[in-house]
Every structure is written in C-alpha cells, then in structure tokens.
Amino acid sequence: MNKNSLETNLKELESIVAKMEQGDMALEDSIRSYEKGMLLLKLCQDSLKEIEQKVLVLSSDNVLGQFKPSDE
Question: Residues 1, 38: contact at Cβ < 8 Å?
Fold first, then answer.
C-alpha cells in the first residue's frame, strides 16, 4: 500500500467504515475491508505521530511547546 496523504487515507478509511456499517457485505469482503482499514489506520497513526513530532517538542518543564528548527 502506498503512502498517500493523511487526508486521502482518512477519507478512504471513512469510506470503508461506512460500507461496513451498512452490514450488507459478504464475509470475505468484510474481512478484506477490515484488513485494509487496519492498514490505513496504522498509516494515519504514523502520519499523525510524524506531524506531531515536527510541530511539538517536550520542554524540560514537561510542557508541550512550539517546535523551533535549529536551522532558523
């Protein structure tokens, strides 16, 4: 599975969830959709973690602060 943008992966995940919630999928299709959904969830979590690390840093006071790159 390629690494799309966070927004693209979230939209696809939401689409899978909506289809599964309808309850009219065959069992095999449901399993495939579940597996794909779990992969998309992992990609979304990884993307969010990466974004968070770029934006926030933990200060010595255990308070989250704005990330300031050293090259600026």
Answer: no
3-state helix, strand, coil in the chain (%, to 5): 65, 10, 30
Per the CB < 8 A criterion, the answer to whether 1 and 42 are in contact is no
pTM for this one?
0.69
63's tokens: 């308070």
User: Which amino acid is present at 43?
Assistant: L
pLDDT digits (tens, 9 = 90+) for 13-52: 999 999 999 999 999 999 999 999 999 999 999 999 888 7
pLDDT at 56: 65
CA atoms of 27 and 11, how far apart (whole Å): 23
Q: Determine the Cα angle at 63 with ends 57 and 64, to 5°.
A: 35
Among residues 8, 7, 16, which one has the least CA distance to residue 35?
Answer: 16
